[in-house]
Design a protein that fits this description.
four-stranded parallel β-sheet, alpha/beta, binds aspartic acid, globular, 12 helices, five-stranded parallel β-sheet, Rossmann fold
Length: 315
């Protein structure tokens, strides 16, 4: 039996994934996919309880974690729309987390502050899975995005991956870029308006890995050369100046017209929700993978992660 590198561990950042443990995650995700497709569910996490502690809005992450736990035979405590109820009463994050650590075996947390998952991990006796910490990271989204790319291309090396939109505030970008840049022959194209560029500390980290990175403002020229076009929403909730947001929100729009320039094999991804950056006319294009592939993969990869974090002998 190999050692399961995820057992009992917090999942706080994509920096924790290595190429080797990504292989484990991919293979367990495929196993989960086959379970769901063939029999719907299993009971390997029977008796285990997951708390879903969400201080920020969520549809897909929240629901897919719950669906994942149910399909693994476990149960869950769903806490959504907390909207600071604990804060209103004067309770701090650490005390809330300590409480749910007493009732459950793992806590999946979304919170508006960067570093909040790390704080919770320091307070918790059970593993914390970061489901988004403000503009920080979203490591489980990165996992499903990575799995989606791997299932399509079977590799990352040699691909030209274009990330578009709000690279400054988009936590899914911050996490995914750390994964794909583990592969030295990937090409990363960063397309954003100047004021929404990738944070310089992340860019520095990526450049240290010696992968090819190009930053640009225009999308049309790079589409034809891209294997993956990963589109993001301008993150309205991170803006203090809403006029500025209005000016930027549709800076890039993916249209059927634009996709005429793309290769047949290119895939268009989006973590969702979209608010106009991909026209709905694109949805029926076979290159659009944001609806079916990414969402289903979200459930499979979260099943994989939960089973690895909670089961010593899973791998
Ligand atoms: N759902 C993703 C997130 O939570 C993307 C987004 O909200 O734009 O980061």
């Amino acid at each position: 039996m190999n050692k399961n590198p995820f057992f009992g561990r917090d999942i706080l950042s994509s920096e924790q994934y290595s190429k080797e443990n990504l292989e484990i995650l991919v293979s367990v995700s495929r196993e989960m996919k086959s379970i769901v497709e063939n029999v719907g569910s299993t009971d390997i996490l029977k008796g285990k309880v997951m708390t879903a502690l969400f201080y920020e809005p969520s549809s897909r992450t929240f629901a897919s974690f719950i669906a994942a736990m149910q399909r693994l035979g476990g149960s869950f405590i769903p806490l959504q729309g907390m909207t600071y109820s604990s804060v209103t009463k004067g309770e701090n994050l650490e005390d809330t987390v300590r409480t749910f650590a007493c009732y459950s075996d793992v806590i999946v947390q979304r919170h508006p502050e960067v570093g909040s998952a790390k704080r919770s991990a320091a307070a918790s006796t059970v593993p914390i899975i970061n489901a988004g910490d403000g503009v920080g990271e979203h490591p489980t989204q990165a996992l499903l995005d990575y799995f989606t790319i791997i299932e399509r291309f079977r590799k990352i090396d040699g691909l030209s991956i274009t990330m578009v939109g709000d690279l400054l505030n988009g936590r899914t970008i911050h996490s995914l870029i750390k994964l794909v840049s583990l592969y030295k022959s990937v090409k990363i194209n960063l397309v954003s308006p100047d004021i929404l560029k990738l944070p310089s500390e992340i860019l520095k980290k990526i450049k240290k890995r010696r992968v090819k990175v190009n930053e640009m403002d225009r999308l049309d020229g790079i589409v034809a050369k891209s294997d993956v076009v990963y589109v993001t929403r301008v993150q309205k909730e991170r803006f203090t100046d809403l006029n500025l947001y209005e000016k930027l929100k549709h800076y890039y729009i993916i249209t059927p017209q634009l996709l005429k320039k793309a290769k047949k094999t290119t895939i268009v991804m989006h973590p969702l929700p979209r608010v106009g950056e991909i026209e709905s006319a694109v949805d029926d294009d076979p290159r659009a993978v944001y609806i079916k592939d990414q969402m289903r993969n979200g459930m499979y990869t979260r099943m994989a992660l939960l089973s690895l974090v909670l089961q010593k002998n899973k791998f």
